[in-house]
Amino acid sequence: MFGCVVAGRPLQTNLQQIDETHAIFELPSAGSINHVSVFLLGTVPFPDGYGATVHFFWPGKGFQLLGMLSNEKPSAIFRLRGTYTAQSTDTHAVFTGAASDASPSNLTAILGLSIEPLPQILQEVATLPAPSVSSPSAVSLALTRANPGADAAVLAERIVQHLFNYLSSFVGGSPLSPDAMIPLGTVAKWYESFMGKVRNSGVGFLERQD
User: What is the pTM for the complete model shown?
Assistant: First the structure.
């Protein structure tokens, strides 16, 4: 039902079920993780009125609520480095048994998923500080702030062109085709690099691309 990608690593689908409403991914070598993308695989949707909260466990530091997924929001990218704040909730208690097996010495982190009613989820994520969650909508927000007068259609075209140029470098410089296989981790890496440029220098670099 779920998949996750740590930027720069292969897709993970090795979900471990804890009970009917809770599951985890183990994330080895957690010290090198900057961003993680979590998404529905498209095989099984949430039941009507339900979604999932996403939680992160750092060995020795406890759990943190990252955000949510739903049928209307089937994917999200979360920035982990520099945003960690330990929390304690009833949901985190469910994950504790699995997390206790993760040895702090090898820094295996836990990404937890809890299926809950949407009203409950919305209440939980409403308490999150804005910088804790990074999703595709954050791109448009950053670009709007950087250049509020930009024409939306032109800006969108330039962003897509930038992505295609980046992905083309991974297929030997040849034009992308519908059959080209691009790892999701590569897209996550592009997103991290792209947002870094936007934050550091605005969107002017989009006008200079070939």
Answer: 0.55
